[in-house]
């Protein structure tokens, strides 16, 4: 109790000396101990002295939540809206307060004050309309009679002095750069505009507030530093400080959102409102006479400037003050706290203008005098963040927290910085702490939701973003990220609704359209995805990301030539887009334009990179270029000589499949001959695109057959190119099998022996010389000069045409390799020695918290199969392939009761796998290991629940025998 009394004594002294920043800190401390309505109103009053009007509004909203009849809060909140130029909102708030006062016992002084405020606001509104009409008529009269010009100018000048100006006219300018950043066009009315709230002392200069649009695709996110002291920092883009997904950014102007009454405004992905006026005074001597107002919250008063130019400065409450004739002008002495506040505001202005070095210099001066000044630390930390000096930024935010643990903005800022460095746990902890200070902050919920999404905690992201849109129904960025998070957890209907809501709020929201496009593409709804992209290009024809997305979609649909057109346009707009460049190279590669493909692959390899994802593309570009050169060297040969599995070194194929750095490959494997060498040996045959009736019939039949391979499931785009290649592969297989079958039938007819003699036929290995430079494998590692493969051959002893199961599959594999050359499709038994330790496939049903759209439909079936196998075998295998007994302690019953893979993991207690089985057709009574079902913990709340198929040499031998027997039986 004694400490509280001492704090209140200190509070009175600080307010008496106009040290509002420290007064706010004391009130923070008092509110942390005991939340009283009067202290909340007192803090709102102190914020108003520093012109942090959005903080005023937030505190008043908080007070009104606790007591909806509190007239003082209505008065202060209305004045804050008025100071922001939001006259209609101010009038509405005052009318709400007046209505409450009429229906219950209320402070008569405040009731009369509200009545007067409403009266003046309505008069002001009417005067504004009359002035608009007068000015229009004046303009007309001026054109007719020039002699009235001076008198009307004088009259207009008087009106400008007597009437309050809008926030956009009064607010001090930050320069052209600041106008661009904040989207507000500012005009200074006179040399030193200094509107002051009628009942509250105020620093010179009217603050403004920049309302940011919700993180558009391409928005450069903005920040504010919501200090407990004298500053809100409105900033430019965090660039990679923001947590944006894989989409390019484009700056967009900011708009005010006058619809929100309770301080709920639009927010950027990493943007915040700013409530600070930087150009507080335009005199060179900070110690000159600075007019300030001293009054209680219930008084009305006016400030008149006593500056040397004797100019009377208009103030917001001028008309009202003149009517009430309540003037109270005092002078502020030359105090350190006021000087510090001015320097702080100049530092903030420098941050707003992008002059980060200058801002840091100003904050350094303040911190030399007071090394623990939290607001200066937050300001400098923000400037460091914009310079990408994230470690320094985090250090400053941490010092600010040490100095003032109640500085919620410092927690938020540090959370952002940590997220940008990939420190997900620390980032979430800091943002959670920031929420303790503002539990109903849509802004922080939005921020934490995006961080959760970026770090793949989709359930938490859905929770945060859902709470955010309840508080801020117009937050389009929150809606689009909510759509992404819902889609990730398989809630596709709700996800679509959220995406549609985001673009309903803003039909020009590029990011929203792009995310909706990606949503439809992920579900393989190509028509809707293309419609969305058309909308995007109608909004902005030079939006490079749209061309990339459409190129990606067309590529997935097998429309490679159309994709090339879009990707080329995208690259003409943004030539450094490595994703576009690599994708165009692969499209050229697929359609046989090897010269253009090699050129694009080389350009990809030459690019400067800034992320690991892009480095992986460079690695792939190396392998794809080599394969393009290999294919070009075979273009003049028959298709059967195209043999990646026989000609390409196993080490190369292994590194290609694993996307590894090609350093070892470069050292150990011969490179393919350059394109010009292939041209010298035999010119690339010009492709014949002339379509005859026979070709048309063949292609129509191939397309019809190929369509049968299409999965009718979410996530699988129909791919015309793949369909056609599959159809042509079926034709070739049919021809070869038919020839082998006819050969066998002819032998049967002319044979005098029993058909039983041919009940068992052996495969025969034949050697085919490699056509690749350097011999088979094209390797310096001592690989043999001939490639051994299973081929179709004529048995000279019997004249019989032989064919193995692998011969059949090899035809299909070759067509699959040529249909999409960037997909690594190879025979696993022809890889390097890595094959000895296993080389298999991984088909995830759940990855982390994400439900994989293509495979999740098999989740229930797979989970039930796993439970059945566990019940039968009574054990599973851990990572070390050791058995885990699950027959004790009622574990089996818990396993059978498990509804999710999470429940299953809790019973076993560690990562595990189990195998399905199948009965052998080659050896009666033998059981073969089928596929494996694996469950691995990922992070705190996620799992990798997948179907894996390992391919070890022993497994290969077993299934080779099975397939050989099945093939023999089919004959």
From TrEMBL:
* Ranges of biased composition (kind: Basic and acidic residues): 123-138
Q: Where is the composition biased (Low complexity)?
A: 288-297, 778-789
Q: Which UniProt keywords apply?
A: TPR repeat
Tell me the segments the record calls region Disordered: 123-173, 288-320, 767-789
Tell me where the TPR repeats sit in this chain: 340-373, 374-407, 408-441, 442-475, 476-509
Q: Which GO terms describe its biological process?
A: negative regulation of DNA-templated transcription
Pfam family of the protein (one): TPR_16
Superkingdom of this entry's organism? Eukaryota
Write down what this protein is called. Suppressor of RPS4-RLD 1
Source organism per UniProt: Manihot esculenta
């Amino acid at each position: 109790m004694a400490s509280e009394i001492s704090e209140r004594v200190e509070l009175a002294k600080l307010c008496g000396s106009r040290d509002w920043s420290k007064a706010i800190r004391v009130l923070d401390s008092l509110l942390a101990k005991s939340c009283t309505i009067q202290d909340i109103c007192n803090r709102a009053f102190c914020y108003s002295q520093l012109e942090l009007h959005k903080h005023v509004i937030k505190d008043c909203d908080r007070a009104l939540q606790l007591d909806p009849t509190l007239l003082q809060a209505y008065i202060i909140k209305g004045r804050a809206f008025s100071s922001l130029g939001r006259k209609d909102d101010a009038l509405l708030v005052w009318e709400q307060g007046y209505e409450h006062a009429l229906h219950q016992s209320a402070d008569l002084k405040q009731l009369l004050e509200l009545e007067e405020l409403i009266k003046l606001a309505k008069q002001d509104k009417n005067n504004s309309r009359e002035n608009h009409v007068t000015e229009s008529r004046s303009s007309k009269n001026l054109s007719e009679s020039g002699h009235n010009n001076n008198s009307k100018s004088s009259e207009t000048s008087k009106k400008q002095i007597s009437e309050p100006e809008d926030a956009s006219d009064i607010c001090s300018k930050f320069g052209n750069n600041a106008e661009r950043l904040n989207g507000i066009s500012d005009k200074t009315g006179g040399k030193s505009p200094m509107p002051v709230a009628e009942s509250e002392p105020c620093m010179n200069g009217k603050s403004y507030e920049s309302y940011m649009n919700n993180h558009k695709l391409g928005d450069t996110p903005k920040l504010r530093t919501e200090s407990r002291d004298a500053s809100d920092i409105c900033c430019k883009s965090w660039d990679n400080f923001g947590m944006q997904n894989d989409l390019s950014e484009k700056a967009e102007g900011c708009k005010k959102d006058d619809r929100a009454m309770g301080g709920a405004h639009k927010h950027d992905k990493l943007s915040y409102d700013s409530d600070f006026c930087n150009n507080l005074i335009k005199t060179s001597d900070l110690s000159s006479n600075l007019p300030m107002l001293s009054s209680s919250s219930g008084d009305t008063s006016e400030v008149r400037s006593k500056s040397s130019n004797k100019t009377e400065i208009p103030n917001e409450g001028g008309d009202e003050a003149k009517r009430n004739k309540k003037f109270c002008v005092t002078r502020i002495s030359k105090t350190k706290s006021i000087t510090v506040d001015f320097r702080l505001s100049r530092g903030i202005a420098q941050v707003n203008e992008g002059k980060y070095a200058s801002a840091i210099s100003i904050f350094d001066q303040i911190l030399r005098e007071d090394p623990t000044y939290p607001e200066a630390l937050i300001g400098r930390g923000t400037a460091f963040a914009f310079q990408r000096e994230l470690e320094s930024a985090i250090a400053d935010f941490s010092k600010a927290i040490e100095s003032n643990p109640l500085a919620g903005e410092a927690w938020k800022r540090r959370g952002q910085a940590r997220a940008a460095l990939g420190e997900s746990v620390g980032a979430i902890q800091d943002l959670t702490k920031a929420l303790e200070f503002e539990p109903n902050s849509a802004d922080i919920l939005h921020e934490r939701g995006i961080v959760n999404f970026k770090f793949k905690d989709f359930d938490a992201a859905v929770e945060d973003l859902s709470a955010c849109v309840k508080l801020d129904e117009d937050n389009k960025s929150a809606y689009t990220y909510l759509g992404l998070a819902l889609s990730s957890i398989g809630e596709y209907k709700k996800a679509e609704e959220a995406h549609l809501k985001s673009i309903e709020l803003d039909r020009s929201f590029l990011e929203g359209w792009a995310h909706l496009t990606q949503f439809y593409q992920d579900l393989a709804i190509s028509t809707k995805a293309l419609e969305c992209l058309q909308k995007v290009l109608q909004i902005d024809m030079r939006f490079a990301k749209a061309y990339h997305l459409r190129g990606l979609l067309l590529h997935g649909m097998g429309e490679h030539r159309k994709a090339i057109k879009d990707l080329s346009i995208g690259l003409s707009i943004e030539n450094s887009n490595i994703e576009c460049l690599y994708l165009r190279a692969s499209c050229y590669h697929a359609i046989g334009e090897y010269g253009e493909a090699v050129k694009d692959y080389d350009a990809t390899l030459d690019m400067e990179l800034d992320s690991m994802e892009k480095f992986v593309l460079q690695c792939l570009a190396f392998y794809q270029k080599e394969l393009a050169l290999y294919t070009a060297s075979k273009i003049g040969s028959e298709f059967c000589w195209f043999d990646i599995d026989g000609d390409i070194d196993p080490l190369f194929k292994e590194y290609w499949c694993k996307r590894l750095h090609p350093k070892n490959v470069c050292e150990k494997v011969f490179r393919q001959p350059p394109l010009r060498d292939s041209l010298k040996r035999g010119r690339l045959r010009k492709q014949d695109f002339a379509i005859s009736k026979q070709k048309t019939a063949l292609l129509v039949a191939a397309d019809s057959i190929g369509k049968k391979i299409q999965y009718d499931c979410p996530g699988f785009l129909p791919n015309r190119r793949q369909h056609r290649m599959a159809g042509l592969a079926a034709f070739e297989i049919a021809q070869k099998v038919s020839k082998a079958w006819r050969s066998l039938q002819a032998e049967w007819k002319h044979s005098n022996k029993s058909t039983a003699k041919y009940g068992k036929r052996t495969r025969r290995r034949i050697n085919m010389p490699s056509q690749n430079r350097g011999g088979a494998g094209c390797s310096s590692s001592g690989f043999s000069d001939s490639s051994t493969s299973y081929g179709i051959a004529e048995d000279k002893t019997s004249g019989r045409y032989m064919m193995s199961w692998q011969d059949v599959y090899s035809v299909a594999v070759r067509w699959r390799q040529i249909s999409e050359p960037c997909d690594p499709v190879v025979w696993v038994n022809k890889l390097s020695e890595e094959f000895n330790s296993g080389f298999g496939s991984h088909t995830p049903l759940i990855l982390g918290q994400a439900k994989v759209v293509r495979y999740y439909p098999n989740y229930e079936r797979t989970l039930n199969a796993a439970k059945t196998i566990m019940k039968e075998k009574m054990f599973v295998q851990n990572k070390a392939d050791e058995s885990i007994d699950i027959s004790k302690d009622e574990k089996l019953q818990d396993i059978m009761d498990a509804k999710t893979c999470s429940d299953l993991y809790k019973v076993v207690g560690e990562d595990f796998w189990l195998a399905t089985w199948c009965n052998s057709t080659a050896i009666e009574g033998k059981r073969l290991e089928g596929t494996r079902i694996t469950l691995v913990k990922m992070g705190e709340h996620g799992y990798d629940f997948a179907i894996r198929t390992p391919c070890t040499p022993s497994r290969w031998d077993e299934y080779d025998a099975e397939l050989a027997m099945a093939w023999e039986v089919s004959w």
